[in-house]
Write a structure and sequence with these properties.
Blueprint lengths: L4 E4 L2 H15 L3 E4 L2 H10 L4 E5 H4 L3 H11 L4 E4 L1 H4 L1 H51 L5 H19 L1
Helix pairs in contact: 2-4, 6-7
């Protein structure tokens, strides 16, 4: 399930947009009317997107910067909600959510590749060490070490497939 969307804007203009976003994306939308309430919401939970009314962003650059800091990986869209209109807001929200999904997929893929390479390196080391130990093993231990070499080799083969 997708995280909710946070809207920081006047309740009157934001309510209509929240309803449209809920219907279009089938996601919870939280509306707060001040930057302070927005910061509190960002401290409490994660959001798929932060939609910020530009008129609330412009007067206090420091407070707006703090919102961006607290948002972390959450995309932030600054819009004049009253003038933008639902179709434009939907396009921009859809684009931001698509971009976020793409970034998350890329990060997962990079993490998978890094983990795969790390495992492959460790298993290769284990295989080489067990092969060396097998060469120097006393007759009573060679069967166990041969089994260990076989297991490590099988795991390496499975990782390469």
């Amino acid at each position: 399930m997708m995280h909710p969307i946070l809207i920081i804007a006047d309740d009157a203009s934001a309510r209509a947009v929240a309803d449209v976003l809920q219907r279009e994306f089938d996601v919870a939308v939280e509306v707060v009317s001040t930057r302070r309430a927005g910061l509190a919401a960002l401290r409490r939970g994660d959001y798929a997107l932060l939609l910020l009314e530009e008129s609330l962003a412009a007067p206090d650059v420091e407070a707006t910067g703090l919102l961006y800091q607290k948002a972390l990986a959450t995309p932030v869209l600054e819009l004049n909600i009253a003038l933008a209109g639902a179709p434009r807001i939907l396009r921009q929200v859809r684009a931001a959510l698509t971009r976020r999904a793409y970034d998350q997929a890329q990060a997962r893929e990079a993490a998978t590749i890094a983990l795969h390479n790390e495992l492959k390196s460790s298993l290769t080391g284990l295989l080489l060490e067990s092969q060396l130990a097998l060469r120097e093993a006393q007759p009573g231990h060679s069967a166990k070490l041969r089994h260990l070499v076989e297991l490590a080799g099988n795991l390496c083969d499975r990782l390469q497939a």
